[in-house]
Design goal:
The protein is about 70% helix and about 0% strand. By secondary structure, it is an all-alpha fold.
Length: about 190
């Protein structure tokens, strides 16, 4: 296993072993959720800095700063199941680069943060629906508009919540499978 993959794995599972997860009296998905939740203050600080710098430094008009802050908070909270899912997938195999390439990289490309999803071919824009980040980007773009389309907000929130429920269930099942596999192997180290 390469050094950078091992370092990432160590951060993911607690110094390279699953022991803290398995020995914790907390339910497994709550442990993953709590670990992901620890990034919330950093995310809020980054989001607040972004909005303030947009207004104060670059003079960008934010028509609805309250809604923008609320949407940023919602996006941060709804990103936790995606993190739980990716972490659970990483616990199921050794090839971290392949798993990262399969789950994370397309999400960044298909999010619409760098260019509109509508400019992609139909196949890719359809796949983008499966990534929560694409709905989060649309939701944040709506908050920057002078006239907020509440129908669009409802649609994007519905997609985000639906995907999060699916990802939460998938993460829980994958994590249980990785735990059973670790018990069968007789080791709590990375399967």
């Amino acid at each position: 296993m390469s050094t950078e993959v091992w370092e990432f794995h160590s951060l993911l599972t607690g110094y390279g072993i699953l022991e803290p997860v398995f020995l914790s009296p907390v339910r497994r998905h709550l442990w993953l959720f709590g670990t992901a939740l620890s990034a919330l203050p950093t995310g809020l600080l980054a989001a607040g800095s972004f909005v303030l710098s947009s207004v104060l430094i670059f003079g960008i008009h934010v028509p609805h700063p309250g809604f923008l802050a609320l949407f940023i908070m919602f996006v941060i909270l709804t990103s936790l199941p995606w993190g739980m899912f990716v972490c659970s997938v990483f616990l199921c195999g050794r090839n971290m680069r392949l798993l990262y390439a399969l789950f994370e990289t397309p999400g960044e490309f298909l999010s619409g943060a760098r260019f509109p999803i509508t400019s992609l071919p139909l196949v890719l824009s359809t796949i983008a629906i499966a990534y929560p980040l694409s709905h989060a980007v649309r939701l944040l773009r709506i908050a920057w508009m002078a006239n907020i389309s509440w129908v669009s907000v409802f649609i994007e929130i519905t997609w985000l919540v639906s995907l999060d429920i699916f990802l939460f269930i998938s993460a829980t099942l994958l994590f249980r499978w990785a735990e059973e596999r670790g018990k069968q192997n007789g080791t709590l180290t990375f399967a």
